[in-house]
Write a structure and sequence with these properties.
It contains twelve helices and no strands. It is flat. By secondary structure, the chain is mostly helical.
Length: 284
């Protein structure tokens, strides 16, 4: 009787393992199919010219997306100047300062903003920045991406700061160290890897945004020489090429999507590397 029960438990355990494995494969399969399709459709257009040349005039084959690749990094840099300090300081406030009632409303607002469609952000910045400046610009594109980053960085920073044991804070304060120095030199330094992880995740989140950039950065087929002028970006260039009637542009759109996916993958791999030590310490 005991042997039969033991065998039945083994069968049920094996069955659940198979089901769990199948579910995991179902989750991974779409990503694998997307990556396979991007590689097969775009790898032929990924060459040296793609990374070094500007787009060719309408109807001509060849050229590249050098300006869009550089423009993407410029926009991410501008977004970081806005999103990182505001998001990190906001997360520090939620974790270390403020009343519980006020913090609840701030958290609620951040969670709501995380769910706002990105095109709404683009329309807001268009009304507040583009129209007063009387033109699209890299500044406007950076502002809208930075605003999308703020609530995500804020909530991530708050969560990782709350993981720091209170004993660290109490020991520092007991030594007569001011609270702001305790937060900066003890709490924030302890949670630094988690904060950087949140920033990288936010960058990966906004790197592929297209809709808000249509209302702010607008796109540019040439090099951008001023942040007050329209600027190209990989998502905008991909969108423009994808809706065109030219087959060569379609191939370059696939190539741009592949490069963008590899960029986001590199950011996510960096996140895994930064958090590896923390995961290993938790296992121990």
């Amino acid at each position: 009787m005991d042997a039969s029960n033991h065998n039945w438990r083994n069968v049920k355990n094996l069955l659940m393992q198979v089901i769990a494995c199948a579910c995991a494969l179902l989750i991974i399969a779409p990503l694998g199919l997307v990556f396979y399709h991007l590689v097969t459709s775009g790898i032929g257009a990924v060459n040296w010219d793609f990374f070094t040349q500007l787009p060719k005039p309408v109807g001509e084959s060849g050229g590249g997306m050098a300006n869009a690749i550089v423009g993407t990094f410029v926009l991410l840099g501008n977004a970081s100047l806005i999103g990182v300090p505001v998001g990190v300081l906001g997360g520090i406030y939620l974790s270390e300062y403020g009343s519980s009632k006020l913090n609840w409303w701030i958290r609620f607002g951040a969670d709501v903003l995380n769910g706002v469609p990105s095109i709404i952000w683009g329309m807001v910045v268009y009304a507040l920045v583009v129209l007063p400046m009387k033109g699209f610009s890299a500044w406007a594109g950076g502002i809208v991406l930075g605003m999308i980053m703020i609530p995500l960085i804020m909530r991530t920073t708050e969560e990782v700061l709350q993981l720091v044991p209170n004993g660290y804070r109490e020991a520092s304060l007991a030594l007569g160290i001011a609270q702001w120095r305790t937060v900066v030199q003890v709490v924030a330094r302890t949670a630094l890897k988690g904060i950087v992880t949140g920033v990288l995740l936010a960058l990966a989140r906004v790197a592929g945004e297209t809709a808000p950039l249509l209302f702010t950065a607008f796109g540019n087929r040439f090099w951008n020489h001023s942040l007050s002028d329209p600027i190209a970006a990989l998502p905008l260039q991909i969108f423009s090429y994808a809706i065109s009637p030219y087959e060569d542009w379609h191939r370059q759109a696939w190539a741009g999507a592949l490069v963008l996916l590899l960029l986001i993958t590199a950011i996510n791999v960096s996140v895994r590397v930064l958090t590896r030590d923390r995961f290993e310490s938790n296992k121990r």
